[in-house]
Amino acid sequence: MTQPMITMEHVSKKYENDALALDDVNITINKGEFVFIVGPSGAGKSTFMRLLLRETLPSSGTVKVNGYNISKMKNKDVPYLRRSLGIVFQDYRLLPNKTVYENVAFAMRVIEAPRRLIQRSVISVLDVVGLKEKYRCFPSQLSGGEQQRVAIARAIVNQPSIVIADEPTGNLDPETTWGIMEIFHRINQSGTTIVMATHNKDIVDTMQRRVIAISDGKIIRDVAQGGYDDEI
Ligand SMILES: Nc1ncnc2c1ncn2[C@@H]1O[C@H](COP(=O)(O)OP(=O)(O)OP(=O)(O)O)[C@@H](O)[C@H]1O
């Protein structure tokens, strides 16, 4: 049974300087999909991702994420939307003065999860990303790939139904990139929807998942299974 997690209907986004970043975008992303958002620099990928997080609002059209209508929802509900999403950035964004354990636990403390549940969940997700042994380390003691794995653990610890990743392997070497993609693959296998913006042709070509290509703010290709730029 298909269950829409993200829908965009006739979505356009014009910034104050009149730049048209998205132009009549229509898409549906269903539960369990793994979707790559690709396109050249300036195409509108980041704008697309920021709309999902409600970091910006559409100029027209309707964006729905996890049952929330991005334009109509109340400000007080924005934290609930964001907590229902796991978010991974290119630059990890870990808290430098907290340990690996504390960085991940923090995401559960803010929702006031019980202490026992926090302990159990943090250890479990650190195991998923292969960093259980490093729980006492600080981010500065880890490699870039390890830091990104902590960021992924933090993103999934509250069991989000959607993980949104903006260029998550952008700072990593090819070998480390594959380790990270393997983790995203496993998270997706467990039923979590994944939306990932990337410039990395190699990973898109190899993974053969849904590809949505944006150029000049328009969707120019949307294939259920494909590579970075085949058919263009
Ligand atoms: N805050 C903003 N104010 C004004 N214009 C913006 C803003 N953010 C993006 N734009 C413009 O909107 C268009 C799309 O930008 P966007 O950042 O979404 O592209 P992108 O595909 O993510 O690019 P990149 O791959 O380089 O990150 C560009 O023309 C950009 O200059």
Automatic annotation (TrEMBL):
InterPro entries: AAA+_ATPase, ABC_transporter-like_ATP-bd, ABC_transporter-like_CS, ABC_transpr_LolD-like, Cell_div_FtsE, P-loop_NTPase
Entry's localization field: Cell membrane
Entry keyword Cell division: yes
A single cellular component GO annotation: plasma membrane
GO terms, biological process: cell division
Predominant place of localization: membrane
Domain ABC transporter: 6-232
Statement: the UniProt record of this protein carries the keyword Lyase: no
Highest taxon listed in the record's lineage: Bacteria
Key words of the record: ATP-binding, Cell cycle, Cell division, Cell membrane, Membrane, Nucleotide-binding
Alphabetized GO MF terms: ATP binding; ATP hydrolysis activity; transmembrane transporter activity
Membrane topology term: Peripheral membrane protein
Role according to the record: Part of the ABC transporter FtsEX involved in cellular division.
Family membership: Belongs to the ABC transporter superfamily.
Subunit structure, as described in the record: Homodimer. Forms a membrane-associated complex with FtsX.
Protein's name in the database: Cell division ATP-binding protein FtsE
Species: Megamonas hypermegale
